[in-house]
Amino acid sequence: MGLDSLIVILIIGAAAGWLAGQIVKGYGYGLIGNIAIGIVGAFIAGFLLPRLGVSLGGGIIGAIISATVGAVILLLLIRLVKRA
Fold first, then answer.
1. CA nearest 9: which of 33, 42, 56, 31?
2. Residue 57 — left, alpha, or beta (φ > 0 → left; ψ -120 to 50 → alpha)?
3. Of 11, 23, 21, nearest to 60 (Cα)?
4. Which of 41, 47, 52, 55 has the most CB atoms around its CB within 10 Å?
5. Is residue 4 part of a domain?
6. CA angle, corner 22, sides to 46 and 74, nearest 5?
């Protein structure tokens, strides 16, 4: 993986983490936290969405939407764990 790929992953992770934080109110983790949540969300979406038969298209916009869906799922799971 080259430096340019790493930068794209970080940008998509940051955008997805920020969007997920806006959708799931009450969880702000800062820039680094948003990037981490976005990247982990992208892995969750990459695992879960194809198994459900969902395809959100290609390109950066599709990657951001997919990662955002995964990040929202992750934030909801974190909320459930914190309540327990």
1. 42
2. left
3. 11
4. 41
5. no
6. 35
Render pLDDT for 31-61 as a digit per residue (tens, 0 to 9).
788 788 888 888 888 888 888 888 877 888 8
27 three-state secondary structure: coil
Q: How many domains does the chain have?
A: 1
Q: Name the residue range of residue 55's domain.
A: 9-79
Q: How confident is the model at residue 28 (pLDDT cuts 50, 70, 90)?
A: low
SS3 state at 16: helix
Distance CA(21)–CA(13), nearest Å, equals: 12
Residues counted in the chain: 84
